[in-house]
Amino acid sequence: MRRIVSIVLAAAILCLALTACGSRQKTDLSKATTIADLKGAVIAGQAGTFHLDVIDQIEGVEKKSYPDFTDLLNALKSGAIDGYVAEEPTALEVCGKDDTLTYLPFVNNDTGFTATDAETGIAVAFQTGSSMVATVNDILATIPTETRQELMAQMVSLSADPDTQSSDAIVLQSSNTDTSNGVFRIAMECAYAPFNWTQTTDANGAVPISGKDNLYASGYDVRVAKYIAAELGMSLEVYSYEWDSLIAAVQSGAVDAIIAGMSPTAEREEQVDFTDCYYNSNLVVIIKK
Amino acid sequence: MEFIREVLGIISQYYSYLLSGVGYTMLIALIGTAAGFLIGLLTGVIRTAPKSKNAVLCALHKIVNAIIAVYIEVFRGTPMMVQAMVIYWGYAFLNDGATLPLIPAGLFIVSINTGAYMAEIVRGGIISVDRGQLEGAYSVGMTHAQAMVKVVIPQVLQNILPSISNEFVINIKDTSVLNVIGVTELYYMAGVIKRINLQTFQVYTVICILYFILTFTVTRLLRLAEKKLAGSDNYTICGSGSDSQAEIHIREAQ
Description:
The structure holds 2 protein chains of 2 kinds. Chain A is of the alpha/beta class. Chain A contains 10 helices and 13 strands.
């Protein structure tokens, strides 16, 4: 009897503790047209990214950081934050998967954040002084802007259901099938759709993640990496590391390059060498409808 | 209910990933605890050994003791997650990009970490055995090594079994920190699944239940082993050969 009473009491205290905190005062952002309209909101970004830094450009907001993109999404859905900073492709992907979400399509340096092309572009990173930078720049130059846009649109639609084989051919394909020049090892998070994500089958040409049984990587970065490797006449190996370990992976030589939706910011330039950008996007804020 | 349906959906869709995660978690926890115990036993015996009369041996003993003390303090005093990052990336930087294979790296990190804790547990176990036991062993002509192996260690093992099972349970849970270097244990698998289906709460509910099943089963099994080692509750102390009535029957209090 006493045991039952104590369990009931414990459960009651737990429920009280969970509900007593009450809900946070939320800010309606759906009418915001410039970043100045976000005043008073709680805005988050991924730790260690440029997305987090730009929150300082908005006046009067509370800034929060989370370690990976799913955490940001959860924080938003649970009501812990009012919105989070992301790139437009991510916003398209996330809002496509979840119809309770939408995003504010700010335009960089106009209605949106102030950013240079380097800060909102993404580039391949090599060890400082690597001769590969020039070679890869030549390869990237052969991918026209329209192909980049098309490829990104294709990846956004693929990411909705990555394990089902699509009938459409990937728009970026290399004609070179010779892989006699060795192995091109690259690192990414495999957790930043539509740039790179993890799936459980090799559908749509996903690449197995090295050292991880039955896990495959796909996304915009993987397609570009596949194209670069093929043009170099090399075979591709994908390694999955935490965001904060990517620079260490390339510096130590554990991998040859980072192709992970990483922007060539000034701080990172001091640690690694970047190629030209292989995609440029807008910074947006993802919010609840 | 929607939530329960999603939880069951995760189990039926990703059971092979969850099982492989459980497998690696148990493998690392089990071998890590066993290896840690051996390290603890070795260091415990060395640290409680009496001073040798030979000056060279005595100096050597002091040096070894100092090394063990540093090892224990460093590995007990820093988080395992930090050790994992330092060892994994330190190795990669020192060896021009060659990285440690993940599962052996995980085993190594958990083993040396557990070893540091076990060293103290074993030392405590040895000290707690009554001094008279050791003296008794010496008095029948045993050397220190013989006394340790035949008299002290068996008692130590029985006494510290609860602490060992405690370490084992802690290791099952703490292997989750190895996800920072990408060891595909249970927590890492949860991360993979949540990034695919974006159902964070549901995925962590599933692995929460799995971790509990693992630790609960292990504690019950080790409790059984403790009972077995403790022997029967009812036993008879042999009495005088001439007077069978002198036997003392000891029974567990009802």
